[in-house]
TrEMBL record:
Transmembrane segments: none annotated. PPR repeats lie at residues 166-200, 267-301, 302-336. The keyword Repeat applies. Coiled coil: none annotated. InterPro entries: PPR_rpt (IPR002885), PROP1-like_PPR_dom (IPR033443), TPR-like_helical_dom_sf (IPR011990). Keywords: Repeat. Residues 256-384 form the PROP1-like PPR domain. This is PROP1-like PPR domain-containing protein. The keyword Zinc-finger does not apply.
Length: 411
């Protein structure tokens, strides 16, 4: 049985499959006048869909004679809804048009075991004749409701002339697949876009760079980057991240310098990722260069960025450099966070410099900086190693008792 978007108007009955039943509707009316269950021998057994050419071919077994020649049409849901489905339907935006609400209701109640999504969408397009604005509203609503077949609906929309797809629509789907680490599906859409003669732009190439970067394919990321004639901040940032993920920090830093020469600066998160890479490898010089580049880009370092620099100096065994970083933080009005203090105590512990550690803590106390959980644990382990943890614990208990009495006696 062949159903096309150009079926003649001389057919007066419409056949709608739903949950093993079929609805018969009169003409183009939106009122269902009859609903019957088909015997098992009359139900659809398989479907071959050619929706891209606006043709739906249905292969059926034992179609009853009275149903032959009926025009297929999409229709509303039945009365047997679960509470979850009723709640989801009630959450639909009241500004949706009736044709959009109709598809959303059926989508919410859609069962992949009993229905075919492309067939459902083809029926809706045939009946409702949507425009681009309707497709956009449908996709927005499905994304909001976290519709499980959102990607399939978006792919179908790209095949529909009524959607009027452009390069940005393809890019959005490629990006959505990339964020889900579905690289194969993203590349399939990209190839489809090229096959249809849609020229990819800088935004599409930037998305591809980011996708290849996450997938660990530096070569293809570089290829995509080289296709961009005038890279912008996002394109540069994606390529820098690709180098960082590939542990090519020298190439990443070289690209940053090229950007600085053009007065183009990446965002804070890219600089932070670069600084973290140098920090984790204990490259204090590299971390300091990136920290300086952050300030040159007009980004004000916070305590987390400073902690990464402190960590780099500590791992490199340059305690004085780390101490200098914390002193600079205090001079700039930034309080060292718990991570910074813990790193410093750990570094002093490795070098056995207890007096320097105590001097460091006393200066922090004068500035009103309190030792929190992580730093306290580092200090406790150190004191336990040298066998004075019990004495320190006794002193702390006496101090807390005196403090408690002072609070109780205060007016």
């Amino acid at each position: 049985m062949l159903f096309s978007s150009h079926i003649g108007a001389n057919l007066h009955l419409n056949l709608i499959p739903f949950d093993g039943t079929w609805q018969f509707c009169k003409g183009d009316s939106n009122i269902c006048i009859c609903r019957e269950s088909l015997p098992p021998s009359c139900r659809r057994s398989s479907a071959t869909l050619s929706v891209h050419n606006e043709v739906v071919t249905m292969e059926t077994e034992g179609m009853c004679g009275e149903q032959k020649g009926l025009k297929l049409k999409w229709f509303d849901v039945g009365p047997n809804l679960t509470n979850t489905q009723k709640h989801a339907i009630s959450q639909l935006s009241p500004t949706l048009s009736n044709r959009c609400k109709a598809l959303m209701r059926r989508a919410i109640c859609f069962s992949p075991q009993e229905e075919n999504l492309p067939f459902l969408l083809a029926s809706w397009v045939k009946a409702m004749k949507p425009k681009r604005c309707h497709w956009l509203l449908i996709l927005k609503e499905m994304k909001k409701l976290d519709f499980p077949f959102y990607f399939e609906v978006m792919e179908y929309a790209l095949m529909e002339n009524s959607f009027e797809p452009n390069v940005r629509d393809y890019t959005k789907l490629i990006d959505a697949y990339a964020k889900k680490d579905r690289v194969h599906d993203a590349l399939k859409i990209f190839q489809t876009m090229k096959d249809r003669g849609v020229q990819c732009d800088q935004v599409t190439l930037t998305v591809l760079i980011h996708m290849y970067s996450k997938a660990g394919d530096l070569y293809r990321a570089k290829e995509a980057f080289e296709e961009i004639r005038l890279p912008d901040k996002r394109a540069y940032g994606s390529m820098v991240m690709a180098y960082i993920r590939a542990q090519e920090l020298c190439l990443a830093e070289s690209l940053l310098k090229q950007m600085e020469a053009k007065e183009v600066f990446v965002g804070r998160e890219v600089y932070k990722a670069m600084l973290r890479s140098y920090s984790n490898s204990g490259d204090a010089d590299g971390a300091q260069r990136i920290f300086d580049a952050i300030q040159f880009a007009g980004i004000v370092p916070d305590s987390r960025l400073c902690a990464l620099l402190v960590n780099a100096y500590c791992l490199a065994g340059k305690i004085e450099g780390a101490r200098s970083c914390i002193d600079n933080m205090r001079n700039a009005g930034l309080k060292p966070n718990d991570k910074c203090i813990a790193l410093m105590l750990g570094a002093y512990n490795r070098d056995g410099k207890l007096e320097s550690a105590l001097d460091f803590l006393m200066k922090l106390e004068k500035d009103g900086v309190e030792i929190e959980e992580e730093a306290s644990e580092v200090l406790a382990r150190w004191l336990r190693q040298i066998g004075v943890i019990e004495e320190v614990g006794l002193v702390l208990r006496e101090f807390l008792e005196v403090k408690r009495r002072g609070i109780a006696s205060s007016p």
